[in-house]
């Protein structure tokens, strides 16, 4: 057998490291990548500081396990771990590039100081040193130098931990006229991004303790795209998808309609993108949110699905199958998983549609609702709305009229149906602005009293009539108000 001729081609350090800086990290994604390392190291606290007043810097400190000198040197190596290797279930890393690639995408000088077993050691990537020497050389800073870095005093007081400091922020402050304003603007999305991406770490979950995280001393705000604390949220039946690489847990939820949400809940659930923009799958890898607000092109985003959120938990053994990228900000399901997810979507859509049409109804309760409006589909692909002439109020009024008056009333009702401002209603619904709830107890009780008197129906039947049927949470209070009727 002929021996294959080979040539060793060593990449040029200057060209490669400068090229790797252009991977496309945003500053918030870069910081999140550093936080991943902190959480993988078992940190209970992660503190982030940044400043541009004198010598601009970004610093991330954790109280995790820390690294010994040889471990720190290994961590500074590009490709310090093989993405094909098996890792612990809580390991949020993959390529062994995050610390270096994320940091150097924003700065030219990366210093990492770590404390473990009573020993504090430091290593630094300085791109000017790489450029001058043309070699992959990591600097070992003098103790007197790294002791002056931000938050080092806090690191020294801890039993263990790691401090990452970015300096010479050429990418982060590129083209800045006013350095302070530019850095403030670039860092503005950081708090919200971290709050969403790590929201499951910010609360106690099963055997996992609650993690504390702060930016410039400000704790991350509470974010929960699934609104677990809302009594009007519907939890649908989930699924476990089994694969040779592991299991995928699928947990679907229907959020409450806008009329049932406070301003704080709207921000927590949808934020700046609104409910319609953030519908879809939320993929978590080790409880860390990787990608969200997407249907993976299985269906388009639609008003019907706008209240639907589907939590998808994947293990890190699925990284290759899900095409997870270096930044851990993009993933796409393999065909075997994608086909299963597609089958679930019609079930989600039906529940979401009912929640939009009858806000406040729970899946468990199924009263015989008498709508005021009927949806008509004269042919496939078209629809209209007409007043339901069988509604007790309409039928009662019709019975009191003579034949000519009934004919005139029918004409008026038809005009009401044809003149509905569909475009304006659709635009308002897509805008995710809370509409007037209409759930004033006094007003609803008066309405129920009038219906009882006009129709002679039982209170149970009356509460099933639109619009009273839209507010089941108030039915008991309405019954108490009408106890004397």
Describe the protein's architecture and organization.
With 485 residues, this protein is of the alpha+beta class. The chain folds into 3 domains: 13-219, Heat Shock Protein 90; 234-357, Ribosomal Protein S5, domain 2, CATH 3.30.230; 373-481, no CATH class. It contains 18 helices and 15 strands. The strands form 3 sheets. Strands 4-3-5-2-1-6-7 form a 7-stranded mixed sheet. Strands 8, 9, 10, 11, 12 and 13 form a 6-stranded mixed sheet that branches. Strands 14-15 form a two-stranded antiparallel ribbon. Strand 1 and strand 2 form a beta hairpin. Helix 2 packs across helix 9 (190-197). It starts with 12 loop residues before the first helix and ends with a helix. Mean pLDDT is 82; it is low at 80-85 and 360-367.
Distance between the termini: 100 Å
CATH architecture of the largest domain: 2-Layer Sandwich
Query: Percent of residues in helical segments?
Result: 25-40%
Total discrete domains: 3
Query: Biggest sheet, strands in spatial order?
Result: 4-3-5-2-1-6-7
Please indicate the percent range of residues in DSSP E strands (runs of 2 or more). 15-25%
Unreliable segments of 5+ consecutive residues: 80-85, 360-367
How many strands?
15
Radius of gyration: 30 Å
Instruction: State the CATH topology of the largest domain.
Output: Heat Shock Protein 90
Number of helices: 18
What's the story with the biggest beta sheet?
7 strands, mixed
Overall pLDDT metric: 82
